[in-house]
Write a structure and sequence with these properties.
Layout (H helix, E strand, L loop, with lengths): L1 E4 L4 H9 L4 E4 L7 H11 L9 H4 L3 H4 L3 H7 L8 E4 L2 E4 L3 H6 L4
Length: 105
């Protein structure tokens, strides 16, 4: 299981605490693997973008109209977190549905 997120993200830290066997990947320093990015965009589309983040608020209108893949390549912190990959399945966010699916309560 891999958990993609940011070291500084409180939600990612909560998820890691309940998923101790997960391998953490910091998308800011390590990036998001191209294959995972493609599958996440296919599965989640534009909801993969965190439009409530300070990074998003710092973008001008022209930048916000760019394709999600391009935005995430240039601004990894724009990804909604955490993105969790387990056995080929992807989960986005740390909500009740994700916790139940992963057996984390």
């Amino acid at each position: 299981m891999r958990l993609f997120g940011l070291k500084s993200c409180d939600t990612c830290r909560k998820a890691l605490k309940l998923l101790p066997d997960a391998q953490f990947v910091d998308v800011r320093s390590d990036g998001l693997p191209q294959d995972v990015m493609a599958r996440a965009l296919t599965r989640f589309g534009e909801t993969l973008l965190n439009t409530r983040s300070t990074t998003w608020r710092g973008l001008d209108e022209t930048e916000r109209t760019r394709a999600p893949a391009d935005l995430l390549a240039d601004h990894p912190a724009l990804m909604k977190r955490p993105l969790i990959e387990r056995d080929g399945e992807l989960y986005l966010g740390w909500n009740e549905e994700t916790r139940t699916a992963l057996g984390a309560g």
